[in-house]
Fold this protein.
Amino acid sequence: MKAARLIKQGNDLTIADVEFSQPKGKQVLVKVRSAGVCHSDVHYKNGKWGEYTPESLGFSRPSLPLTLGHEIAGTIEEIGDDVMGLTPNQPVAVNPWEGEGQCYYCSIGEEQMCDNPQRLGINIDGGYAEYVLVPDSRYLKLIKHLSYDDAAVLTCSGVTTYRAIKEIGIAPDKKFLIVGSGGGLGTMALKIGKVLGIGELIGVDINDKAIEATKEAGADFGINAMSENVEKEVMDITDGHGVDGIIDLSSSQKTLDVYPKLLSKLGTYIMVGQFGAQLNMNAVTAVRKAIRFKGTYTGNHKDFVEVIDLAENKHIKPNVKYVGNLEKVNEALKNLEDLKVSGRQVVRP
Ligand SMILES: [Zn+2]
Ligand SMILES: [Zn+2]
């Protein structure tokens, strides 16, 4: 089968012909119908997070070659002998945030934090391929109305933003600021926030096209940080209180230096982006305002199941851009590197 593989960090992915294994035990072989192209793939490909290397951040490099691609939807091709309740040809979304099932974090249901992670397209071969071998059938969810493209991007941008919103707290009287609101994660955060009934959603991004996407995704306000004074706009909208929650999808130096000041008392700042910046805030300010800073990394299996159901039931439509077949994956990654993308690109292997 064809797969887009990372052979050497820093280089483009190579389209290679690789063997696929027959599923054994609880494994399932899935035919990939759609694979989302995520900004974190740019980091994995380059082996860099801003100026930082994996070693300096305290995590290991993947063993190569590796098939990237962690946002996967497709149909069941073949099941292992111990798989119950699934049959070939069923449409599925794949939860890529898999653990080995044995460590403390797996035991408390936070498999995405596993000590020995088995994340598809990150630690083990992923979905930029015609087929992907899923280690355990429990990580599959049958889909009903969702398209393969929509289901694929929900497995990462949906899960991540849904969990980030839960970390702040779902409440109808809260005002949230979404930083980087016009991208794949941003538009998803807005759509999910809307159906969950978050009081007011403010998006901030850096060009008119992204602001257009922000408003289309349901934001109550869209602020262009290049042409408007974000601090003044946010304080006007919130009557000088600031926002209850900020989801920073970039977490770049520019955003971390400015946006924490826009939190209200008891506010929560969620860092999602991995651009390699430092958080600088006077602890007295943090204490006196009783504000919280949290990093979140994707979500657990419960978050995955909930967000897929939410999207099915509430007809959440991710902002998806089809870019072509597997051969187009390097072009899609380059678009992300050049910050030329609004919405989420997908390839169909
Ligand atoms: Zn992703
Ligand atoms: Zn584990």
Summary: DSSP finds eleven helices and 16 strands in the chain.
